[in-house]
């Protein structure tokens, strides 16, 4: 992508996703992902009904009056995006690649994060960890992330979610909110790493899929290419057995994802590329907000 075209695309995504995060998601995001910790704010004179455990004895002794510590919710937190950049996401049966939708959702989450005064970082992964952009604040940082989402070319072709989760768990020391964006089409188990990651961090899975991920249409003899291995073969899609074998494979991957979600306790949303992802994200945010 040429420089001018890239800048134009970055600007388009900025306008759309920044507007969404400001006008639609701002309050919902704040409610769903507000900081959990408490930080010291000030001391004030003791009032009837205050918890005696909050008395600051040093200040009380110095001023000869009982004073209590006042705490406020720790607002700033870290948000990490774990983005699957494997070749299976460079696919579309209509006009929008899975990777395009992932980019828009990631950008929307990033703008929502900085409006909430959160730091935002990103991990690109395929069958390996491709790149880490450490968490920072600011519009300039987010525009850099969007450029990378648009331009990044992975070395690997396959998908290894297990490795990405283990890397994030080890690399990000402080508890964070982590969004895992992927089509989850992988033969490598990631159940144990998801459980460990969820124990340390607040992990949310965002499943992106194309309608053709679920079934092959009956259109006769078709040449298919595996995006991750590069292998091509002719397939008779008029064969019900062939179509059912493919459908069963995809169902097994989705059931594996559901098993991981249930065992780890992470939140989860599934989004089809031709659907309105705004509704799905709002539903996710509101369900989380209702739990708090």
Considering the chains and any ligands shown, give keywords for the structure:
two-stranded antiparallel ribbon; alpha/beta; 23% strand; 292 residues
Descriptive report:
Helix 1 (3-32) packs across helix 4 (139-151) and helix 1 (3-32) runs parallel beside helix 9 (277-291). By secondary structure, this protein is of the alpha/beta class. Helices cover 46% and strands 23% of the residues.
> Sheet bearing the most strands, described?
6 strands, mixed
Unreliable parts: none
Q: Specify the overall morphology.
A: elongated
Strand order of the largest sheet: 5-4-3-6-7-10
Q: Nearest-angstrom radius of gyration?
A: 23 Å
On the 0-100 scale, what is the average pLDDT? 83
Record field, number of beta strands: 10
User: Secondary-structure element order, as H and E?
Assistant: HEHEEHEEHHEHEHEEHEH
Which structural category do the helix and sheet elements fall into? alpha/beta
Summarize the helices and strands and which ones pair or pack.
Blueprint: H1 3-32, E1 38-45, H2 57-63, E2 67-73, E3 78-84, H3 98-115, E4 119-125, E5 129-136, H4 139-151, H5 161-171, E6 177-182, H6 191-200, E7 202-209, H7 211-214, E8 221-225, E9 232-236, H8 240-264, E10 267-272, H9 277-291
Parallel strand pairs: 3-4, 3-6, 6-7, 7-10
Antiparallel strand pairs: 1-2, 4-5, 8-9
Helix pairs in contact: 1-3, 1-4, 1-9, 3-4, 5-6, 6-8
